[in-house]
Amino acid sequence: MNKSSLTLLVLCLAIAAGYGDKVYYRAAGGSWASMEAPVRDGRLQIEIGPQIAPKGEAILVVNKPEWMVLDDTTPPQLSGLKVNGTPRPSSTDRLELGCLSSATVEVIMGIKDDKNPISATDVSFSLTDARGATVAADTSGLGPPKSSGRLVVKMSGLQAGSYEGLLKLTDLAPLGNSQSWPISFTVVGISVSEDLQSLSLANSAGGFSFEPGLSKQIRLPVGMQLYLTGTLGGWVYPAELTEVEIIEDTAEAKTVLIKSTRLLDDKQQPVPDGRARIEYELTIRPDTPCLLVTSRLYNVGENEADAHFFWGWLPGAYFVTPVQGKQEWEGVAKDQYIDLGTVGWVWLAPRSEGKPGLVWASNCRFTQSRFDTMILHSPSATLKTDECVEMRFAIGPADTPGAAEKMYQELVQNGLVPEPPAPEGR
């Protein structure tokens, strides 16, 4: 054996000078064996041969604690989970902590291992993009000699929005078996950045966000972007938010009003002041997973002006309407926009497996774009000073067309979306 290439891993090196000890080693094939090792001149004497160091690697355990089980290759598992006192599923590959209404969250986890205690010093509970939140883990309920225990994690300062994180646990087996669980949860509500240029809204469907920009504005929980394009004496988009105010914050609804008079055109050049104002009212409610949107384009100039705007451009594997049923995209093939009419709602099928589709509900006119995406049009009007064109819609995740239709009916019944005239084609 080439001794210069030997890799030696020695665990539990608390050696009492002058005393011999039993040393355990991992033999070829993964089994464990032991040998006596005397201590001479304060040093543990171990003779390492091929049996102890197969393939030039030796793993030794010295002064093994009574509780340690050497033959352990199974990582820790969760035996229970409570979030703010409410039980949640724990026997899953991913920890869904749910939809929470508080900025402070307590997570209590029961943890077990088949053979060894849990390493308290190796517990990791982390959040990505925590936005000023603090995370404190109480690991005093873990460690030797028991192979089960309790982990308590407290999070505070959570703002409204969706969160992702990771829990990692490791046992005290000689080689430290580890297991990780992705974490996700949503804190319901509306939060506004200090500079008033970005917002987060969250409901039972997850997190929505908003920021100004030609192709930004509303970001949906499924990751797609939905944005308004206006025309009033030329193209207009929000370049900067000038007013942001939470105008309703009750148990029934939470609404933020957003205004922008600092606008860009389609060349991303500033629009002269005094032409237009764009407004958004964004609402979340506990009785629907949808984001409710009211958008307005105002003429703030001195003269009359023609105005119109539309929201887009949402893709999908295909789409479904209550009038035409399932439809394949034709816009690219025909190189034209195809009017769908005031059909009430469309369902956009997910393009990736495991993702939900989208329901988009409105009394306004849907159009299939020539880029195979969906657009929703406002009415067109000639506006006097301080008059506006307005559009209302709801949008949110929906797994199937049937679920989309049910959500639409509930939205209409609750007065959250206006019912359109009888759909064209009936």
Could you characterize the architecture of this molecule?
The chain is mainly beta. It has three domains: 9-62, no CATH class; 77-186, Immunoglobulin-like, CATH 2.60.40; 189-413, Distorted Sandwich (Beta-galactosidase, Chain A, domain 5). The protein has two helices and 36 strands. The strands form six sheets. Strands 16, 17, 18, 19, 20, 21, 24, 27, 30, 33, 34 and 35 form a twelve-stranded antiparallel beta sheet that branches. It has a nine-stranded antiparallel beta sheet with strand order 22-23-25-26-36-32-31-28-29, covered by helices on one side. A hairpin with a 4-residue loop joins strand 22 and strand 23 (254-260). The longest helix has 13 residues, at 401-413. It starts with 6 loop residues before the first strand and ends in a 13-residue tail after the last helix. Residues 12-19 have low confidence and may be disordered.
Topology of helices and strands:
Elements: E1 7-11, E2 21-26, E3 32-37, E4 39-40, E5 43-44, E6 57-62, E7 77-83, E8 86-87, E9 95-100, E10 105-112, E11 124-128, E12 134-141, E13 148-156, E14 161-170, E15 178-187, E16 189-192, E17 199-203, E18 206-211, E19 217-219, E20 225-232, E21 235-240, E22 243-249, E23 254-260, E24 262-264, E25 276-285, E26 288-299, E27 305-314, E28 319-321, E29 325-327, H1 331-334, E30 338-341, E31 345-348, E32 357-362, E33 365-368, E34 374-377, E35 381-383, E36 388-398, H2 401-413
Parallel strand pairs: 1-6, 9-15
Antiparallel strand pairs: 2-3, 2-6, 4-5, 7-8, 7-10, 10-13, 11-14, 12-13, 14-15, 16-17, 17-18, 18-19, 19-20, 20-21, 20-27, 21-24, 22-23, 23-25, 25-26, 26-36, 27-34, 27-35, 28-29, 28-31, 30-33, 31-32, 32-36, 33-34
